[in-house]
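Budget justification note: compute hours in this period were largely spent on complex prediction jobs such as the one shown. Inputs:
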Amino acid sequence: MKTRILALVCALALLLCALGAPALADDVITIEVLSDANASDDSALESNFVRDRFKEKLGVDVAWNYNPELQTTLNMRSMSDDLPEIFAVPSRAMLTELAEDGYVLNLSDYADQLPDAFAFIEENIAAGKVGGDVYAIATRPYAFRAATWYNAKWFEQCGVTAENMPDTLEGFLALCRDLVARDLDGNGQNDTIGLTGTKRKTLRQLFGAYGCTIPNKLVCTADGTITDTMLSPAYYDALCCIRELWAEGFIDHEIFSLSDTQAVEKAMTGTALLVSCDWPSIKKAGVVESFLALDPDARWEIVGELTGPTGDRYVGDYNAQSYQRLYAVNADLADEPEKLSKVLSVINYVATEEGLELTSYGVEGEHWSRGENGAVNVFPEKVQEINFSWVYQLCGREDLSYCRMKFGEAAWPYILATSEQAWLDDVTKIIDKPSWYNATDAETFISESVMAFISGDAELTPESWAAFLEKLDTTYQYGEFIDYANGYYHELSGK
Amino acid sequence: MVRAKTGNRIRETGSDRVINAAVLVLLAVLFVIWFFPMLYVVLASVTPYEDVVRAGLLILPSRPTFTAYSFLFSSTGIVGSFLVTLTVTIVGTLLSMALSILLAFPLSKKGLPGRALITKLLVFTMYFSGGLIPTYMMVRRLHLLNTIWALIIPGCVSTYNMLLLRSYFVSMPDELLEAAEVDGSGPLRTLVQIALPLSLPVTMSVMLFYMVTYWNTYYAYYYYCYDKSLRPLQVVLMDLIRSATGEAEADEFVPTITVQMAAVVFSCVPIVCVYPFIQKYFTTGIMLGAVKG
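Corresponding output:
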């Protein structure tokens, strides 16, 4: 008898729990978004104001599925007929594959349901196209963030300020060489490196001052031609300059093994005079706090544009027509028009003014208020609460205003200054490789050869450089690939 | 080489001493090579960030601090992940051991019908697995997706571990088990009361293999789950390291090297602590299993 009563009590308890559990309204559907975007406090994605707004306004509960193993997971889930409603696609190559196999929805057919989204990504919409139709929302790229940074404290110790800083590459390098030789860290050893950074991108401003990019980049010139700057005569001169700096030990020989954080740490500990990195690696509040603990007087400023021998002043390359992420929609939803409509409403909503404000600044009145001039004023004490919201920016964001709010006024001058520097228009990510072109082998050959020229492992003479270009053309059909890239780009972009 | 036996000891010759000394030096060098990185990880986790960055290599922390641990436990959700991993490890190991033993013991019996065929089929799976996609489809059809069972069941039985157990059971004298049967013991009782106590070395070794595998659960989470409350420890650890070393995303948190090291210590220490208790069985168990079969 006791057992039966106990069973009855347990059953009632379970029933009450079920009744008491918060249930979604009947018209709220749950969708899954698979993405490699994740908030630092990912528990915030379980329940938050953005998710609540989606439920209230659109009748959609967005379950965020962060997954850094996107390619494997998408392969696995597409083959298992189990793709989520919205998913990030790691590359255009995979998007093309998925589109050709019928796994992703042709969004062009639903343009009428995505007016705000299409308008917001107008400049880079081509990056999500396959065969002339939009198969993915190419989120707006972040603003240009790269810079070379100098140790202002050391420069000023030697009487060099921003006002009397040389603005030519030659003058600047001469100055830096002089400073490096002065034992600025005062440890009695000649161990200060001129320039450190992470991998090849360390060299981007050096190449940029010659009007060139680091290897394996396709750029769009002012007249709309797609080219690889490596094919220009200035590239050889840039290589000669960099090779000389490498041989002197001015460029850190460890750049290929350093992460962004390690490179900046190296600079902060007085090992390097200059560091090449994006502003978040050196100007985020958390990073600045850590480095001030190392040296309370530390100050790192942007070198800025330097005029090279060719008259160019590029600081690096930037993907203005490219994308930060590609978001696609499951093609199976075409059979469920009602659900599809709700899914598309989420994508469109985050591109509306209201959606952008929500995912960038939070809830009006709770996290921010509008000033008299219409400007958004985020309450400083609420900034932490909206840290996660950027993951929901399925179409991207107004990067500069967002970063100003998120990273504060201390970082803002640097955010703005980096974005205003000159850059070469990198279109590498949106040029799909043709099947006849062995991109992996060609890119490896280019990378290894250029590094061998820089490091001195290979002789660098006009003849050896010409022989390298000749081999690239004959063995890897590089010239034909560039022709193909031009045709492909113009067809894709319609320009 | 002449060696004189004195009492129970063999007297060492000069060349023996040289060789022994060389071995000791070599082992000492290997010990330092092995031990220093581990020591560095522990020391870096209890040293202020600025000292770690400035010093590079540490011998002793100048100002011991547990700030990194404090941050780790308060801000990264690592404690919840620790409990997930602990659950997966305990439940998974028990389940794996039960299934492996119950599979290995009958297969060790010569009289089992189809024994050779079953063994061959099992060995086949060691060389040709179903592959990722069929496994995912199976997990999905079994409705295990996004449950803790998805972290346990797909890798529950390792054929290799099962064969180790089977080899050990095969090596047991038939007479011993037959004697138990004569005394009225059924197969299950014979297994539990006779075979298992006698096969403690190999059982403990295999258990350790399973424990370490479950402790290191990583990919299964990303392939089969997305519920944040199911994140295993290694996933959190990897996220911490990835967010610190990858391209800077527009997010605020940058885990410092000390936080990363604290996470490494926290994720390693529990499983490392298990080793000393199983060490004595480990060598014997695997050696015995390896030469029989």
